[in-house]
Structure formats: structure tokens, C-alpha cells
Amino acid sequence: MAIDNGDFVRVNFTGKIKDTDDVFDTTYDEIAQEAGIFDENKTYKAIPIVVGGNHLLPAIEEAIKGLEAGDKKTIEVDAENGFGQRNPKLIQLVPMKEFKRQGMTPVPGMRIQSEGSTGKILTVNGGRVKVDFNHELAGRDLVYDVEVCEIIEDDEEKIKSMIELHYSNPNVDVEKTEIDIVDGVANIKLDEMAKFDQQSYMDVTFARFRIAKDIWDNIENITKVNFVDEFEKREEADEEEDEE
Question: Domains of the chain, with CATH numbers?
Fold first, then answer.
């Protein structure tokens, strides 16, 4: 089956900077280790996306349309269709006193957060710090090697794939999710560990909204998504066993 907009698929990919061939992102652990970008807190495996859902760069999602499970493709993405051109206005001079006020000692290469944007400190000169708020890949032409691993067709598996994509809690086992679809309503009961999520209420709510939106936008006949949280009174014997 050829891939089209709205299809749920799993893909592996490796992204490289075109002119240097440096790897900046990958779903393969061995490639990440070879490139020196391995992150022990990241799980390296094929990721689920909805084609046309802006889960990857739009240029990549457009390029994989027409492919089938098992197909591989090398995709070139110019800067304009990647992370944009560099904007000189996003390179700013920040007074040193702003860092001191927050108890920070700025050094070149340090990354900082400011008003929702991430910046990289370029230089520290006297009382001023030069910070670049451009995306680190802005202005770079990119190359992606993409492999379509699977086209997901079962509706319950589609829902689980979006939970896997958006609900970034390593302690939550997606396979323990209970899903019931009745009369256009998808009722989702997450793994018990989701009750102990340490993320903020806003982050959890936003993750659930993104899951719901991808479901009702792309799974036919589902128009409503419920997340079911159950808290059951435990018997005294069970509580005593836990205490022991």
C-alpha cells in the first residue's frame, strides 16, 4: 500500500548536514554512538508519525508519500524548507548583569532559555554577552536517509502509536494501554504509571490534546477522545502487603 496523507507509519531516519556529512539526529543507536551524539536518556528505534501531521519536516513527509513498507529513500532538504535561513536579528547582545541576576556564569557554547527560545552563547566580552537565538541548523542544507518500517492499519495500534509519540514518559508502558472504541468515541485508559507522572499539569494536558487531535483528524469515524483515569479503593490486606 502506497503511503498517502493521513497514514500512520513508523520510520527510521538519519539526518546529516549536506556540506559536512555530519550526523545531527538519528533513530539508530549505533549511528548515534559513531557520530558522538548518543544520548543515554533517548530510546533509539523507529518513530511513529502521521504523514502530513507535521511530526517531521513537511519536506520529508511529502517525499515519503508513494513509498511502501520496507522502502528507503534519501531526501535532500534545502535550508528554506528545513530550519529556515539565519536571521541576523536573532543574534543579540545581553547585558552581563542579566546573567548575574539569575546566578549564571555565561561561557561560550552554553545554551540558555529566554522567553521560550533557546540560544547559544557565542562570546563573552566585558559587560556584554552575544547570544545566537537562531536554530542550530538554520541556514544549513540537510540530507535525510529514511526507511519506512511499517504502515499501521489497526485503529487501536494507531492510537497507541500517537501515545508513544506524544506522551514522553519512559515509565509508561504503551502496551498496557486499554482502548475501547464505541460509536465514534475512543476511550483511553493509560498504563497505571501515568497516574504518577511528574510532568506539569499543563504539559500532560497538552500531550493529551495532541494525541486526541491526531486521532480525530486521521482515524475515520472517531470524533471524540476520552482519557479515563480510575482510582480504586484498595483493600486493607493489599495496603498491609505494600507496607511490608
Answer: 1-84+137-153 (3.10.50.40), 88-132 (2.40.10.330), 154-235 (3.30.70.2210)
